[in-house]
Amino acid sequence: MRRPFLLALAAALTVGLAACSDDGSGEAPAAEETAAEQEGTQAPGTGEDTADGGEVVETITVTAEEMSFSGIPETLPAGTVRIDFENAGRAPHDLVVEELGDEQVIPVIDGGASESATVTLEPGTYTFYCSVGNHRSMGMEATVTVD
Ligand SMILES: [Cu+2]
Predict the structure, then answer these.
(1) Cβ(64)–Cβ(93) under 8 Å?
(2) Section 12-27 average pLDDT
(3) pLDDT, tens digit, for every residue of 89-108?
(4) Sign of the C-alpha dihedral, residues 25, 29, 30, 35?
(5) What pLDDT, in 10s, does the model give residues 41-97?
(6) Which of 36, 65, 143, 145 is the most exposed place for a label (fewest CB within 10 A)?
(7) Residue range 114-139: average pLDDT?
């Protein structure tokens, strides 16, 4: 007389476990929504400085080589500066401004390539550097005073 009772208990436990696993799978759609939201927030951050339409107050020509920059002046006027950047070396190089949240003003480009961009600077002291490998510590760094 006990067996029918045990079978019923086992059935009840199985249903209970199935219900638990259903709850677990219910979390998947929520995770996807979170990922989609994160992708959405990245889009505005890719805006280019050229879109701000600021008047270019000075144009500088910067040359990158292993392992130094040339053409980065010690002082610049405040405002929008155009940077014509040439990689005259063989290794890839870029140009990053530390005080702008390590903004990569010029992307990493191969040796022999060139790239132009504008950057808007308020008065202050800025560090320009190359973020590739250990280039910064090997000398690809310059301090610019903007006033
Ligand atoms: Cu470099």
Answers:
(1) yes
(2) 45
(3) 999 999 999 999 999 999 99
(4) positive
(5) 333 433 344 455 579 999 999 999 999 999 999 999 999 999 999 999 999 999 999
(6) 36
(7) 98
- Give Dmax over CA atoms of the chain in angstroms: 96
Q: Residue 17 pLDDT > 90, yes or no?
A: no
Question: How far does the centroid of ligand 1 lie from the alpha carbon of residue 94, in Å?
Answer: 6
What is the distance in A from the centroid of ligand 1 to the CA of 78?
Answer: 26
The CA distances from residue 94 to 15, 16, 24, 65, 81, in Å, are: 61, 59, 46, 11, 17
- List C-alpha distances in Å: 19 to 16, 25, 26, 104, 137: 5, 10, 11, 51, 58
Determine if the pTM surpasses 0.70. no
3-state secondary structure of 45: helix
Distance separating alpha carbons of residues 27 and 49, to the nearest angstrom? 40
